[in-house]
Amino acid sequence: MELERTPIYEIFDRKQSGNQLYIMREDLLPFSLGGNKVRIANAFFEDMQKKGCDIMIAYGNVRSNLCRVIANECFRKKIPCYMICSFEEGESEEKETSNSHLMQMLKVKIVKCRKNQIAETVEATMNRLIQEGHKPYYIYGNKFGTGNEGVSASAYAKAYQEILNFEKNQGIFFDYIFHASGTGATQAGLTCGHLLARDKKQIVGILISSREYERAVSIIETGVREYLKGLGKEFSMEDQKEIHLASEYTKGGYGQYDEEIEQCIREEFALNGVAMDGTYTGKAFLGMEHYIEDYQIFGKKILFIHTGGTPLFYDWLGTQKKDLGRL
Q1: Per-residue pLDDT tens for 187-207?
Q2: Rounded Cα–Cα distance for residues 168 and 78 (Å)
Q3: Residues 90/117, Cβ–Cβ less than 8 Å
Q4: In the chain, what are the helix, strand and coil shares in percent, each to the nearest 5?
C-alpha cells in the first residue's frame, strides 16, 4: 500500500483549555476509509511476504478497523483471508456493524468465538490450514497473541518521523501527543519514535478497552523492546518511564460509551468538521480533555492523532435520529 503524509492542523478547542490543539488526520489515509490500521496492516503484509506465507488470519470483533483494512488488502491481492471474530461479554454473536458488513462484502471467512475461546480457535484454524498445505500468517504471532509486537510497532515508529518533519517545517513543536490506545501497537510505535528522537514530548495513550492496566502496559513495553531490539538497541528502565497510559477514561470498556462521549462527538463534528466514534476516537478525545483538566495542563501545544474509524461514526449516527438537533 502506498502511504501518504496525512494533514496536521490546528483545531478549535471546545473546552478553551488555554492550550493550542492540533489534530493529525490519520482517518484521511487514502485506502479503505483510512485510519492508523492502514499503516499497521501494511507492516503485517510486509512481514507476511518476508515469511513466505499464503493465507492471512486476522483477529478482532465486528467493530474492528484493522480487520476491515486487512480484508480489503487481501481482496485486492487475492490472498485468502480469515478473521477470528470474538464477541464482548453479553454481546450477541449476530451483532453487525458497517465494518462487519464491509468484511462480508470482501469475502472474509469469519470464524466466530467467545472471548475465552480465542487461543483455541486461532490454534484450530492455523492447524487446519497447515494440514491443507498452506502457510498461514496470524497477525499477532502465536495463538496467545504474542510474537509480532515489534512488527506492528514499526508502523508508528516510522509515522513519528512525519510528526518530526511537520515540526521542523512549521516551527511548531508539540509538548504532548494523545491518541486512542487499544491493542497498544500505535502507542508502542510512537514511543519508539520518541525514544529514538530523544525529544521532550510526552506520548499519552487513552485506554479505550477494559484491559487491565498492567497487561496493557506490558504489551506496549514488549512492542517497544522488540522494535528497538531489531535496531540493535536496548529498552532501558529509564525508557520504561516514557510509557504513559491513561486507564481512567474507559467508560466501562471496549465499545462502551455514554452521553458525554456522544456530546463530544456531536460538538467536534459541528465545530471542526471531524467525524469521531464512541469506540475509539471520541472516547480518546474526551479522555484527552479530561486528562488535560485533571493534570492541569496549560499553555502547551498538543497533538491529537485521529486514528480513524469512519464506518463506526456512521453506525453511531444511525442511532441518533431523535437527538440530531441536540448540541
Answers
A1: 999 999 999 999 999 999 999
A2: 41
A3: no
A4: 45, 15, 40
> Which one, of 184, 187, 316, lies nearest residue 242 by Cα?
187
Q: Please report, as a single letter, which amino acid is at residue 223.
A: G
280-300 CB burial, b ≥16 within 10 A, e <16:
bbbbbbbbbbebbeeeebeee
pLDDT tens digits for 37-65? 999 999 999 999 999 999 999 999 999 99
123 membership: H or E segment, kind and range: helix 118-131
Collapsed DSSP state (helix, strand, coil) of residue 173: coil
Give dist(CA 53, CA 210) in Å, integer. Answer: 33
Instruction: Determine the Cα–Cα distance for residues 171 and 193; give it in Å rounded to an integer.
Output: 19
C-alpha cell at 152: 506492528
Nearest to 254 by CA among 224, 288, 284: 284
Question: Per-residue pLDDT tens for 144-160?
Answer: 999 999 999 999 999 99
Q: What is the pTM for the complete model shown?
A: 0.95
| Confidence band of 94 (pLDDT split at 50, 70, 90) | confident
- For every residue of 92-110, DSSP letters joined together read -TT---HHHHHHHHTT-EE
C-alpha cell at 287: 479522555
**Secondary structure element (H or E) that encloses residue 305, with its range:** strand 301-306
Cα separation values, 267 from 270, 272, 282, Å:
5, 8, 10
Closest CA to 113 of 125, 121, 105: 121
CA gap 190, 236 in Å, rounded: 16
pLDDT at 1: 63
How many Å apart are CA 105 and CA 116, to the nearest integer? Answer: 28
